[in-house]
Specification:
Layout (H helix, E strand, L loop, with lengths): L13 H9 L2 H4 L3 H21 L14 H8 L3 H14 L2 E5 L2 E2 L5 E2 L2 E4 L49
Antiparallel strand pairs: 1-4, 2-3
Helix pairs in contact: 3-5, 4-5
């Protein structure tokens, strides 16, 4: 096989948002579990939609994954996952659009989230990304609606992540 000259000048598309996110103070303040959870939710935002609807770009605002399933995916405890979800909400990376509840039939429903750094919908229902993490400052957390009791405690080592 010969080389494909049309692909030689292309840039990898996924690295742009990773580098952009990593430069924000809100990203540096996140725990490692919260960073991993964010990637899992971001993949779910695109993967579920691609299977169901070919024309829709993402299902942002309806992204969900139960803490139990996230814990199995990541290989950690449910408490770690719930602390990561609370940390993501406090820094503005995700916003709960629908709270968890116990349905009438006794089946539980997990919370649904919106990723704030990604746009919602497409076509006529398109809404731009709100990008709350860009406005986040140390000590000024956003309200946590889901898993608030699991909010991580401040650590001494976190202060080293921020440059004066």
């Amino acid at each position: 096989m010969g080389r494909n000259k049309s692909n030689e000048d292309r840039e990898p598309q996924w690295t742009k948002w990773i580098l952009h996110h990593r430069a924000l103070p809100a990203w540096k303040a996140l725990s490692f579990a919260a960073r991993e959870i964010y990637f899992h939710l971001q993949v779910r935002c695109f993967a579920e939609t691609a299977q169901k609807h070919r024309k829709v770009t993402n299902n942002n605002g309806q992204v969900f994954r139960s803490p139990r399933d996230l814990a199995l995916d990541m290989g950690c405890s449910q408490k770690t996952v719930m602390a990561g979800l609370a940390d993501l909400q406090a820094k503005g990376w995700i916003v709960a659009t629908e709270l968890a509840s116990l349905g009438v039939d006794g089946k539980g429903k997990t919370a649904k989230y919106r990723l704030t750094m990604m746009p919602m919908g497409s076509g006529g229902s398109f809404k731009a990304a709100t990008q709350e993490p860009k406005e986040w400052r140390e000590g000024q957390n956003y309200p946590v609606l889901v898993h608030k009791p699991y909010m991580p405690k401040p650590r001494k080592g976190r202060a080293k992540n921020f440059k004066k």
